[in-house]
Amino acid sequence: MNLRNYHALLLDMDGVLYRGHERMPGVAELFDFCAKNGIMTACITNNATMTPAQFSEKLAGMDITYPAANIINSPIGTRLWLESQAPQGTKIFCIGMNGLRTALFEDGYYVESAEAPAYVIVGLDTEVTYAKLRQACLLINAGARFVGTNPDVSLPIAEGLVPGCGALLAFLQAATGVEPFIIGKPGATMFYIAIKLLGADAQRTLTIGDRLDTDVAGSLAAGLTSGLVLTGVATTEDVATSDIKPDVVYTDLPALVAAWQSDLA
């Protein structure tokens, strides 16, 4: 594969740009390389815990300057999907953190309520309680539509892997027998949004992620060239045994930059 053909790069964040609050090697060099060579970039993440502005601030805390306008997370995708489904004033019961709550409720378009909501929307909530999960189960069983921001069962942090949104969804699905409708990766929605944001050509867009089941599967669903880095969840053994195959695998971001520089030489 010749990277000379690509003019846009879509990057996952957790496990690619950082792990927890630890910056991955080669991040600054990658963004500098893209800027110097006119390669457009956007970050797409299933992480529903923060707003794009907060993600930008987190990156800044690791000495990475990146605009919030180019960060698309699953709450933004959830809100855009919801607007195509539900009118203003629709009641929603939400399990999630600031990123999801801001996207759903900050402008007052939708109403947060545990009284006969039309939707139960679940994102990662690191302060989730049994009471919240109990209420969600009762509402789903009563007919509220069950929606998950993303299916990631684990989240990479500096110490290792911890439960992600998908773990909460699995809990609720096991308790109700109802399968959630998933907004984020491995769906194609956020990839399409990012390509439109950049004004990029899909055939000349490369994606880079660290998970086969979400990043690579979502990229393939969107018809994009899929790249994997081995700095997060997926291992070489996973790639060898999985039915989901990326188009290209890099050890890390420095390896990606080196390959791109070589192809441009």
**Large-scale geometry:** globular
- Provide the β-strand percentage band: 15-25%
Number of DSSP E strands: 15
**CATH fold name of the largest domain:** Rossmann fold
Rg (C-alpha, Å)? 18 Å
Task: Give the mean pLDDT.
Answer: 94
- What is the total domain count? 2
Strand order of the biggest β-sheet: 5-4-1-13-14-15
Helical content (DSSP H or I, runs of 4+): 25-40%
Give the class-level CATH name of the largest domain: Alpha Beta
| Low-pLDDT windows of residues | none
One letter per element, helices H and strands E, the order comes to EEEHEHEHEHEEHEEEHEHEHEHEH
Q: What is the distance, rounded to the nearest whole angstrom, between the alpha carbons of the first and last residues?
A: 15 Å
Question: What is the strand and helix layout of this fold?
Answer:
Blueprint: E1 8-11, E2 18-19, E3 22-23, H1 27-36, E4 40-45, H2 52-61, E5 71-73, H3 74-83, E6 91-95, H4 98-105, E7 111-112, E8 119-122, H5 130-141, E9 145-148, E10 154-157, E11 160-163, H6 165-176, E12 181-182, H7 189-198, E13 205-209, H8 212-221, E14 225-229, H9 236-241, E15 248-250, H10 253-264
Parallel strand pairs: 1-4, 1-13, 4-5, 6-7, 6-8, 8-9, 9-12, 13-14, 14-15
Antiparallel strand pairs: 2-3, 10-11
Helix pairs in contact: 1-10, 3-4, 5-6
